[in-house]
Amino acid sequence: MRIVISEFMDEVAVDRLRATFGNDAVLYDAKLVDRPDDMAAAVADCEVFIVRNRTQVRGALLDACKAAKVIGRLGVGLDNIDAPACEARGMKVIPATGANALAVAEYVIGTAMALRRASYQSTYDVAAGKWPRNQLSSGRETAGSTLGLVGFGSIGQLTAELARGLGMNIVAYDPALPETHTAWNELGAKRVTFDELLAQADVVSLHVPLLESTKNLFNAERIARMKAGAVLINTSRGGIVDDAALVAALKSGKLGGAAIDVFTQEPLPASDIFAGCPNLILTPHIAGVTFEANVRVSSMIADAVIKALA
Ligand code: NAD
Question: Are 205 and 235 in contact (CB under 8 A)?
Fold first, then answer.
């Protein structure tokens, strides 16, 4: 098998690979990731291994990829791939850079508005005739508030573009993006230090990779330095926010709300750590996953594979 796909990929893109390389050249099994022995056997002679975020391309599985030239990643964020080890073996790692950025940016805007307004969880109370109008009458508007973006790369910049349309002020912290970069001016974003961002932002949204320098970045001490009533949104990676510190800040009223899409362990094991937390949205790592994003991500990786094997 020349191409092995171990997780969900849009069928149209899979069919394009089949049409280009032949039906017999493509093994597509969206559940292969759940059968590690079958997966290790399947990749033994493949040239291209296409994964999403659950397949851990490292250690024994990477050793099993004896003939692979390309690792296609249906998304961005390479923490499930040992990229240096792939590189050392001459394999090219290709992420779908930018293809799901809009889905994430819309998630950030959607949750920011919902959390600031804090008025959309009354369905059953309204249906039950409780009419909680007084309790829900002091929600906050989003226009005029300040969005603080930690990481101003592809997703951070797209989020800024959408936020501008809503009349938000934008500050961003990304020391690797030089002051002279055109994005700052084009998107009307103010380049600030991390401390300034914490002090100014009403909504803080995280768009950094998981690195030693970002691990536990939002711990109790830094959360304490955020503005009172601010909202925290994490679509980047689990481990960047300390969940226990976040829960304490929501329960004490220090933070006004939070949306968390990513967790240190995924799927998140059942636990009561988040029980009773006010104004909290938890989602199962779907910020970047929409119908349209799936099509874009899969199509981008199919194009890249066709080009790489040409
Ligand atoms: P990107 O590489 O375009 O941008 C990341 C930015 O973070 C870069 O500009 C970099 O300079 C900056 N950065 C790195 N370390 C930093 C630090 N310590 N402080 C401040 N800035 C720092 O990546 P992207 O496409 O914008 O994606 C960002 C992250 O979002 C990815 O790493 C991925 O983990 C996550 N993501 C999640 C989903 C989802 O479904 N939840 C989907 C896509 C991406």
Answer: yes
